[in-house]
Amino acid sequence: MPAPLLTLQDVHLTIGNTPLLDGAELAVEAGERLCVVGRNGSGKSTLLRIAAGLVVPDSGRRFAQPGATIRYLEQEPDLTGHATTLDAVLSGLAPGDDASRAHTLLGQLGLTGREAPGELSGGQARRVALARALAPEPDILLLDEPTNHLDLPAILWLEEGLARIRSALVLISHDRRFLANLSRATVWLDRGRTFHLDRGFAGYEAWRDRLLEEEERERHKLDRRIEAEEHWVRYGVTARRKRNVRRMAGLAELRRSRREARRQLGQVKLTVSESQGAGTRVVEAKAVSKSYGGKPVVKDFSTRIQRGDRIGFVGANGSGKTTLLNLLIGRLKPDAGQVILGTNLQLATLDQSRALLDSETTLQSVLTGGVGDTVEVGGQRRHVIGYMKDFLFTPEQARTPVRVLSGGERARLLLARALAAPANLLVLDEPTNDLDLETLDLLEEMIADFEGTVLLVSHDRDFLDRTVLATVFAEGDGRFVEYAGGYSDMLAQRGEGVVARQAAPEKAPSRERVPREGQRKKLSFSDKHALETLPKTIDVLSKEIGRLQAELADGALYTRDPARFRAASERLTAAEGERDAAEDRWLRLEMLREELEGPL
After folding, report:
1. Contact 498, 491 (CB under 8 A)
2. Would you say 135 and 105 are in contact if contact means Cβ atoms under 8 Å apart?
3. Amino acid 502: pLDDT
4. Which residues contact 353 (CB under 8 A, 6 or more apart)?
5. What is the value of pTM for the model shown?
6. Are 27 and 6 in contact (CB under 8 A)?
7. Pairing label, strands 33-37, 168-172
8. 173-204 pLDDT, tens per residue?
9. Cross-strand bridge partners of residue 64
10. What's the pLDDT at 9?
11. In angstroms, rounded to a whole number, what is the distance separating the alpha carbons of residues 115 and 84?
12. Which residues, 6+ apart, have CB-to-CB distance to 15 below 8 Å?
């Protein structure tokens, strides 16, 4: 077996008085497809910077094979010192590298190479940094949140390109679908330690949950042993002093183990302050249009949004999504058409721009508005410290200035501020940026439980599929079309990916699934066969999953037969992934059949 191109062994790093990495390990082989996952602040980015040779740990070993080329994409790329975007990309090439790739990549990313780096948007700067990392075709690519600030066409372009290249990949991302499509192995960084799974991200969450459950069982066993030893010390025979001393020493060791036992970090608690009294109609838009400089940004758009609707807005950067959103909530006046807002609307917004937070303002002031030490959440006054804890901030951070927060912490702070405001209409613009996967889960649950209306702009395909009931897609030239369901539903109805159409559609579907010109007229034989056989496959897998879950519920299995426990755990993860894939395929095919043939 060939030696890894890059290894990190027993890496320790303490920042201030807080241990960040405690024996972390990483190995990257040629052609590896690895994702690194963990909570915000767990040290994922620091681990990548150590792998890139930019940070020296307190102890541990980093080894890279001589001659191996490594390129690192950081979360906030620095393009200063370059006159043009082409210069920035060329600076990443080594002697002998093909300079034509720099031109090609910039063109594919919608840039000319003549742009001034200081005048770029966040998304454009990210594209330049990506081109600089990809141009040399290195042996190892270390990518920290590569999809941040990218729109859907760019994310899909990047995903397809990374799937083809020969470079080994180490990925950090909050985009579940991106990780699931690209990774073949997973490293979970948890409380300073790393755990390796020889499967991609699709199998990670079930595997992580089982590890945590196993850890909790072991902690429970330790608690019972301590209880038994304490009982013996209190009520046992005391004549044999030496035995007593040994048992007391053993009890002290057990207690030490219990104190030092790894504990799962706290969970974010998301609640939204819902206001009452809004009518059934929230927004009605009639033939709304808006232009800037003679260019149509929104053209003849109509919709009716009712209480309880959850609508996603999707499209390329610059396609007018935010303009349309501002028209619908009354922040902009249309050039033509009419927007009618419902009664008693109370709006809460989450903007993707971190610039909304004054860098010198403290966390407490952000949440309280600088007045007092309480916030009102769900109609109840709460002390700001308790509310901060819901979002995993410590009491000591109350007077911390915003400038010292990480990107993920800023995202949580903005979320905390938005959700504290009473609202029956939530407007969320790229809420998933910089949030860890656990916080994303809870945000999804909060949106699902919210009784008001949610308008959501996002490029996160999985998040859209999990949250929205309808998707408004920017078709180009100011045209927006509304489709029923989430991102995957929209793709199935369009049948054309996420590339904007050049010609106007004959008729806007307005949440009705209709066949589109150029789509297939009937199902293929293989599709029909799959529709007939997939339910049986799903049933067989569901029964197998139930059997494996019952087997793993035996708390003594791990102690009695560790190999069997591991085999059952791995098979359960695989079976769950197979069932999810079968269910997704059946759903897509059934939707396509209904479009072509109508309901049964």
Report:
1. yes
2. yes
3. 42
4. none
5. 0.69
6. yes
7. parallel
8. 989 999 999 999 999 999 899 999 999 998 89
9. 6
10. 96
11. 5
12. none
| Alpha-carbon torsion angle 239, 244, 246, 250, nearest 10 | 160
- Which residues does 224 contact at the CB level (< 8 Å), separation at least 6? none
Q: What is the mean pLDDT of the chain?
A: 81
How confident is the model at residue 510, as a pLDDT? 41
With contact defined as beta carbons under 8 Å apart, do 412 and 393 qualify? yes
Give, in degrees to the nearest 5, the angle at Cα 195 between 13 and 4: 80
Task: Spell out the residues 6+ positions from residue 303 whose beta carbon is closer than 8 angstroms to its own.
Answer: 283, 284, 285, 328, 472, 482, 510
Residue 598 pLDDT greater than 80, yes or no: no
Token digits of residue 584:
């997704």
Q: For residue range 338-386, list pLDDT tens digits in order.
A: 999 988 888 888 765 555 677 788 988 988 888 888 887 766 788 889 8
Residue with the two structure tokens 């990506």: 130
Q: Backbone phi, then psi, for 488, in 5-degree steps? A: -65, -40
Residue indicated by tokens 């993920």? 408
Q: What is the pLDDT of residues 532-578, one digit of tens each?
A: 888 888 888 888 888 888 887 776 776 788 778 778 877 887 787 78
- Decide which of 121 and 171 is more confident: 171
| Residues recorded for the chain | 600
Please give the Cα distance from 478 to 64 (Å, whole number): 50
The CA-CA-CA angle for residues 415, 421, 425, to 5°, reads 90
Query: Which residues partner with 63 through β-bridges?
Result: 7
What is d(CA 251, CA 256) in angstroms, rounded to the nearest whole number? 9
**CA 446 to chain centroid:** 16
Question: In a 10 Å sphere around its CB, with 0-12 CB exposed, 13-18 middle and 19+ buried, how is residue 521 labelled?
Answer: exposed
Specify the pLDDT at position 511. 40
Please give the Cα distance from 416 to 357 (Å, whole number): 13
Neighbours of 226 (CB within 10 A): 15
Residues with Cβ within 8 Å of 283's Cβ and at least 6 positions away in sequence, in order, are: 303, 304, 305, 328, 329, 339, 340, 341, 342
Q: Give dist(CA 553, CA 574) in Å, integer.
A: 18
Best CA proximity match to 340, nearest among 350, 351, 353, 327: 327
Q: HEC profile for 479-492?
A: EEEEEECCHHHHHH
Rounded CA-CA distance 51/4 in Å is: 13
Q: Which residues, other chains included, contact 487 with Cβ-Cβ below 8 Å and sequence gap of 6+?
A: 312, 314, 461, 464, 465, 471
Query: Residue 311 above 70 pLDDT?
Result: yes
Mean pLDDT over residues 592-597, rounded? 67
Residue with tokens 């919608």: 110
The tokens describing 492, both together, are 């199935």
The answer on pLDDT for 512 being more than 70 is no
**Which one, of 334, 283, 312, lies nearest residue 478 by Cα?**
334
Q: Which residue has the tokens 């067989």?
A: 540
Q: DSSP states of 545-596 as a string?
A: HHHHHHHHT-TTHHHH-HHHHHHHHHHHHHHHHHHHHHHHHHHHHHHHHHHH
User: Angle of helix 241-260 relative to helix 204-235, nearest 10 degrees?
Assistant: 150
